[in-house]
Design a protein that fits this description.
Strand content of chain A: 15-25%
Number of domains of chain A: 2
Structural class of chain B: alpha/beta
Oligomer: heterodimer
Shape of chain B: elongated
Distance between the termini of chain B: 50 Å
Largest interface: A-B, 45 and 16 residues
Number of helices of chain A: 18
Largest sheet of chain B: 3 strands, parallel
Helix content of chain A: 25-40%
Structural class of chain A: alpha+beta
Distance between the termini of chain A: 37 Å
Helix content of chain B: 25-40%
Order of helices and strands of chain B: EEHEHE
Shape of chain A: elongated
């Protein structure tokens, strides 16, 4: 009861300014026209105003409503325009009518909410004992109505604009005659497709998806080496079309991308056209509705599409990785728009990707791979033995980069449910699949020497210096079985699997990185 | 009026002026190989020509550990501290 109330200055219906505190004892009333209880108490409020030494400020929440109130009740008290609701917000008004008595310095002395006849009578006895009121004409009790500041959309606008706003990013004002979408394209915020305007209200709503402080630093994004705060990532998640519950996945993916191990600078810059491919595991898949079944690698699912896109837009906008700038991809790659999907762990007989990578099955995890190509379809509708099918995988995957490129780095093999069923007939493990791929792709070095058919391959001059037993030694497609990352996804129908192939692997290029998702 | 939150890192786009060009090359010159194939071939030839035409200029050779990553901070400082000029060989 002794709190200093927020000072304000508002105009009445005649355009005159009224300030609070006013140096005398006063009463501030918050009302709105369409509230029956507000209308019930308006004569009482005006009676308070009539008491000498007690200045009443009626703070109305709509322009039209204020005029109606003043006319309907022939008010003498000034009706102030708070249609911007800034004062109502500052007073944290939940219910109208709200009546607050304050001393000459603006310290709260008394307050009424809604209408309780006994409370109002007591209030009058304390502050306006001389007023004549026919209390018998009033009901015992009437509930108040919700303040307009409690409307979800209005509340977000006010919270975004308030001094305590959690947002600190630069606000860009777009003139009324400007088309918002064209403006954003002109600024270079987009990947070429339409984006959602990141209004303060939308960004606030996006931030509801995480418990992290909006200003906490998630990562430093190259090439600009710019700080990516939770807020900046949320702005880009809005651009991409994410729902708030996707935000923790986007944050974890940015964390993973900006490690030295993943080396997103090189990934985005390379002329080979690499892009992060994101695989999501754990319970968050179902909670946010990710697709791991039919068309898992394709379009049509909002979570898959927009999470991948949000990461890419943050790399572009915050980090500055843009085609023609540091991004120098010769051909580009559609995965650079977005490539994110979930593993269908329940359809897999194997440990899930994140479990293989050291996480608990119950944890939600995103894993990033730097891939330059894919998904390349592997068509095998006739193999009935696991050994045959895994052989097909290897024979198809040998084409990655170039058939003669052996001892390669990371790749992802996405195995579809029908192919899983074939592999299950012989209880093939992930290790069995990997070993079989290495087996069928192993070539003697002498088969990999550049020749008249193709200049790609082992340098002939180098080969010439090799002893025969060296030239007869076998080189598998991948430098180790561990470079073959197996994930299960796809629909129940179709004996088709797919693979993605990588970029420069290892510490001098990029290595896969997994991050636990802060799944609230 | 629509207000949106800036999705970028908020660097004001300013046209960068290039540093003033000295009238002549004196002192020490760095040749930086970013470690793309054959960058060293280009720099070898360049060094040969520089030594021939500018015999009083000292030449230091540097290489990034890998072309895929930005030069490490220590290397950037070393080049800046020990040289008056730098020529970077980009690629293939």
């Amino acid at each position: 009861m002794s709190a200093l109330l927020p000072a304000f200055s508002l105009q009445d219906l005649d355009g005159r300014s009224h300030t609070f505190p006013r140096g005398t004892k006063s009463v501030v009333c918050f009302v709105k026209e369409d509230c029956p209880t507000c209308n019930l108490v308006m004569p009482l409020i005006d009676a308070l105003h009539g008491e000498s030494g007690l200045g009443v400020l009626v703070t109305g929440q709509t322009v039209d409503g204020n005029q109606v109130l003043a006319r309907r009740h022939a008010l003498n008290a000034p009706v102030l325009d708070d249609s911007e609701l800034t004062v109502s917000f500052a007073y944290d008004v939940e219910t109208v009518p709200l009546v607050i008595a304050a001393d000459h310095e603006g310290v709260e002395a008394d307050r009424l909410v809604g209408f309780d006849k006994n409370e109002w009578r007591a209030f009058f006895e304390r502050h306006a004992a001389g007023a004549t009121v026919d209390w018998d004409a009033y009901p015992d009790w009437r509930p108040g109505c919700g303040s307009l500041t409690q409307d979800p959309i209005i509340g977000e606008r006010l919270r975004a604009a308030s001094e305590n706003s959690p947002l600190s990013a630069r606000r860009v004002e777009i003139a009324p005659h400007d088309d918002v979408h064209e403006f954003m394209f002109d600024q270079g915020f987009s990947d070429g497709l339409p984006i959602v305007p990141p209004t303060p209200e939308r960004v606030l709503r996006m931030l509801e998806g995480t418990s992290r402080d909006p200003q906490s630093l998630v990562a430093t994004i190259p090439p600009n080496l710019a700080p990516a705060t939770v807020e900046k990532i949320a702005v880009n998640a809005v651009l991409a079309g994410c729902r708030p519950e996707y935000l923790p996945v986007v944050i974890a993916a940015i964390e993973a991308a900006c490690t030295d191990t993943f080396n997103v600078h090189g990934v985005m810059a390379t002329t080979m056209g690499a892009s992060p491919v994101m695989v999501v595991n754990g319970p968050i898949r179902q909670r946010i509705g990710m697709n791991m079944g039919l068309s898992a690698l394709g379009q049509g699912n909002r979570a898959n599409a927009t999470i991948g896109r949000a990461v890419r837009l943050a790399l572009r906008n915050v980090g500055g990785a843009r085609p023609g700038g540091t991004e120098r991809s010769t051909l580009g790659n559609p995965m650079k728009y977005s490539m994110c999907f979930a593993e269908w762990e329940e359809r897999s007989p194997w440990p899930a990707l994140h479990v293989e990578r050291g996480f608990d099955a119950g944890e939600s995890v995103v894993t990033l791979f730097a891939m330059t190509g894919g998904p390349s379809l592997i068509v095998d509708q006739t193999s009935r033995a696991a050994r045959q099918l895994a052989g097909s995988f290897g024979m198809s995957m040998e084409s990655a980069h170039n058939v003669r490129a052996h001892n390669m780095g990371d790749c992802i093999l996405v195995v579809s449910p029908e192919h899983i069923d074939t592999l299950r007939t012989e209880n093939y493990t992930k290790a069995d699949v990997r070993n079989r791929i290495q087996e069928v792709t192993s070539r003697r070095l002498r088969e990999l020497v550049a020749d008249a058919r193709s200049g790609a391959g082992l340098d002939p001059a180098l080969a010439a210096g090799m002893p025969a037993d060296k030239l007869d030694s076998l080189a598998p497609k991948f430098s180790s079985p561990g470079n073959i990352h197996l994930v299960v996804a796809g629909s129940e129908a179709g004996k088709f699997s797919a693979f993605f192939h990588g970029w420069a692997s290892g510490p001098r290029g990029s290595m896969p990185v997994s991050r636990k998702i802060d799944d609230p | 009026m629509t207000t949106i939150m800036d999705p970028t890192d908020e660097r004001v786009p300013v046209a960068r002026a290039i540093s003033p060009r000295p009238p002549e090359i004196t002192g020490t010159l760095a040749l930086l190989d970013i470690s793309k194939p054959r960058g060293n071939v280009l720099l070898d030839r360049l060094e040969e020509l520089l030594r021939e035409r500018l015999p009083d200029v000292a030449v230091n050779r540097y290489a990034k550990p890998t072309f895929t990553k930005p030069a490490p901070r220590v290397l950037r400082h070393e080049i800046k501290n020990d040289n008056d000029f730098v020529i970077e060989a980009l690629a293939d």
